[in-house]
Amino acid sequence: MSHSEEAATLKHVDQIISPEWMIPVSSKGKRNVKALTGLSIAINHNKIVAIEPTPRLFKHYTTDSHTELPNQALLPGFVNCHTHAAMSLFKGLSDDLPLMMWLENHIWPAERKWVDDAFCEDGVTLAIAEMLLSGTTCFNDMYFQPNMTAKVAQKLGVRATIGMLMFDFPSAWGSGWEDYLKKGLSLRDDYKHSELLTFAFAPHAPYTVSDEPLSKIATLSNELSLPVHMHVHETAHEIKESLSQHGKRPLKRLQELELVNPNLIAVHVTQLHRNEIETIASHGVSVVHCPQSNMKLASGISPVQDLLTAEINVALGTDGNASNNDLNMFSEMKTASLLSKVYTGSAQACSAADILYSATMGGAKALGMEKLCGSIEVGKAADLTAIDLNTIQAQPLYDPVSQIVYTAGREQVSHVWVNGRLQVENGHLCRLDNSQLISMAKNWRDKIQHSKANA
Ligand SMILES: [Zn+2]
Fold first, then answer.
1. How far apart are the CA of 9 and the centre of ligand 1, in A?
2. 4, 96, 100, 167 - which has most CB atoms within 10 Å?
């Protein structure tokens, strides 16, 4: 073949990335997570079009944008499967209290006073900046003013599932359950052409939403094939209250309301009987494990290894910044693995590979996005995170998967792409200004602290 014939067969693509290691996290097989070397990926129109050994890839593809990442591991961006992004502005406002006391005496009063469009726009912006810098490319949110979460995520180019929030009681977002529902569905309609945003029903919890609206959500989620994102069995107190109010445990009540099915994303789930694990498994429910929030609020421990053994899809989430107090999937992964080992008394519980799978594919599956993201595979969106392993703390490097879960920190995130677009380069945000973000957060701190002091 002549040079000109060779050039004619070369396909031009938007970009090619050549990392030292690639951890594709296959969507096929059982939690398949391994570091591979010598591969490059070609990206065109936001999608991964080829993954091949580097010399072979360059025989077929050419580009004007080639990113070489020596000493770095490229993995699918983290999917943070449970957040209340705007709550970032309440981070550290109130700590060291049990869930109901924390909510009733501190968080709910602060929310009644402060939460509006402006608060949520700034809070979500701060949260997205923190998540991108920590390698997260997709988040599943539930909070007031989801219109602002959608607006900011879309503007900044981040993938998100926006929770169509619902409570029985009124808030800055809705006057009652019918109003929440109407506003949520209309917001979903506003973004029906978005490549980045999807929507989920988000009834807050069994103890804040009554039977009639839950039943309505069950019907609609089935008709529209939309996930239902909900706090479920977060604490022993929740179970006790449900037994006295409804005469049954919350999961049983949800089952009777026909919400226990593959659309359900059950968050926390720290209180489970053996037969409830079987119910969750046989109905295809996804569980979101939020170990740091559960530990900080002393809510309990989710039996994650038992869930994995029962073939239940487990995703990982940080919860809101006010009960964690960060949006850092690296520390969440390490905590999840270590906590499971202590809880089960088995050092084999929740391996590094298991938990890296949960932090990526597990989240994508829970959100119904398993064909779109969560792994590096041809045809999927280019949602990618590169981690620098050429640091003192990463040496010596025997196994990148172990190093990422047990040793690495988010300061090692060097590059992040969402839908093929570069969002973090050499550890710096490409589309947001650090000093502006810090002064915005300080302004909110001054206002909120001043009013707390005068309360
Ligand atoms: Zn939560």
1. 52
2. 167
State residue 455's pLDDT score: 65
Tokens, residue 46: 């936001």
CATH number of 3-76+373-429: 2.30.40.10
The per-residue pLDDT for 451 is 81
For the residues 31-55, what does the mean pLDDT come to? Answer: 96
Rounded to the nearest whole angstrom, what is the distance from the C-alpha of residue 48 to the centroid of ligand 1? Answer: 33
**Position 69 pLDDT exceeds 70:** yes
Neighbours of ion ligand 1 (CB under 5 A): 319
C-alpha 429/C-alpha 423 separation (Å) is 6
Q: What is the mean pLDDT of the chain?
A: 96
pLDDT at 29 over 90: no
**What confidence score (pLDDT) does residue 26 get?**
86
Q: What is the pTM of this model?
A: 0.97
